[in-house]
Write a structure and sequence with these properties.
Aminoglycoside 3'-phosphotransferase, Chain: A, domain 2, two-stranded antiparallel sheet, Phosphorylase Kinase, domain 1, alpha+beta
Length: about 325
């Protein structure tokens, strides 16, 4: 769809209308970047400044509305769109420049990125209703074991030969992880840290390099976010850092980055007190990814489902 001539012409018309509302005009062609399954983005040159256009896949179309809610609450912490289409999942935003992945991958940059995320999560605590109304799914640890059971039943019920189908035996094997899941969920539910935005796909590419030293980076990419335990956002960064530095989680560099993150939650405990929550938070994180995958593939064709099926089923393996 995103590569069709008709869609790109319609998109150009939408962008032009949005620019006109601000008294600015597009200059030159829209520079589309390669499309991913979840979205396509483009650079838009205007007579005022460069803008960034993003179109989300139908299953993640709530991102513009979610970003607007975040921008209304903490305008300096996200990139507030200039225009959105809630139904289509379109967003036209200012271009704030490069993200942290354009810099050297150092522990200092990971510390900064994780502090930026954590401070946003703390600032948004207590805003569940606003984000739920905007379309953000809720993944509450106290209900997660039941949701896991329902997910297994869904996959078992699929027709034989369906890429996402599993057998009863496979379901029993996956169900064996339920005890660990329940223990993790009990710890998270009893923890002093309230629910907030769990990013879902956090990395250095999701943090804008700030123009002024000493200010946090703006956080991007809330399309796969959930209202969940915020520390679950550490799962992907931890995996990236361990792979990058070929080390375990107790490596000094990773511990520095983790403690920089946890220090932002000082109202709820010291980093030493909160550190034991990381393991259970990361254990449950793939189940939120599972939910995102199912939404994302609602309108996918069979070949796409077959391609991504192993990744989706992997999210059901606890531990």
């Amino acid at each position: 769809m995103w590569n069709s001539k008709e869609w790109r012409e319609d998109t150009a018309a939408w962008i032009d209308a949005a620019c006109e509302a601000y008294g600015i005009h597009r200059e030159g062609e829209i520079e589309f970047w390669p499309a991913a399954l979840q979205q396509i983005s483009a650079l838009v040159h205007t007579d005022a400044a460069d803008l960034v256009f993003t179109a989300n896949a139908p299953g993640l179309s709530a991102e513009p509305s979610i970003t607007v809610v975040a921008g209304e609450l903490v305008p300096e912490r996200v990139v507030m769109p200039l225009a959105i289409d809630r139904n289509a999942g379109y967003m036209l935003s200012p271009d704030f420049g490069h993200t942290m992945d354009a810099l050297e991958t150092t522990v200092e940059n990971w510390e900064f990125a994780l502090r930026s995320l954590a401070s946003l999560q703390v600032a948004l605590m207590g805003q569940e209703e606003a984000f739920f109304d905007a379309g953000m799914p809720v993944i509450d640890p106290q209900f997660l074991p039941d949701q896991f059971d329902q997910a297994l039943m869904l996959h078992v019920s699929l027709d034989d030969g369906h890429p996402l189908g599993i057998t009863g035996t496979q379901a029993d094997e996956l169900f064996s992880g339920t005890h660990a899941l329940r223990e993790a969920c009990e710890l998270l539910h009893a923890s002093p840290v309230p629910l907030s935005i769990e990013h879902g796909a956090f990395g250095l590419d999701q943090v804008v390099i700030p123009a002024e030293p000493g200010t946090p980076g703006r956080i991007l990419g809330l399309g796969a976010a959930h209202w969940a335990h915020p520390l679950s956002s550490l799962a992907q960064p931890l995996g990236e850092m361990c792979e990058l530095w070929n080390c375990d989680i107790d490596d000094e560099r990773i511990m520095r980055a983790l403690f920089a993150y946890l220090e932002e939650f000082s109202d709820y405990g010291t980093p030493d007190e909160l550190y034991p929550l990381i393991a259970p938070a990361c254990l449950v994180a793939p189940l939120a990814q599972h939910e995102s995958w199912l939404r994302l593939l609602v309108d996918a064709d069979t070949s796409e489902i077959e391609h991504f099926a192993p990744q989706i089923l992997q999210t059901l393996k606890i531990g």
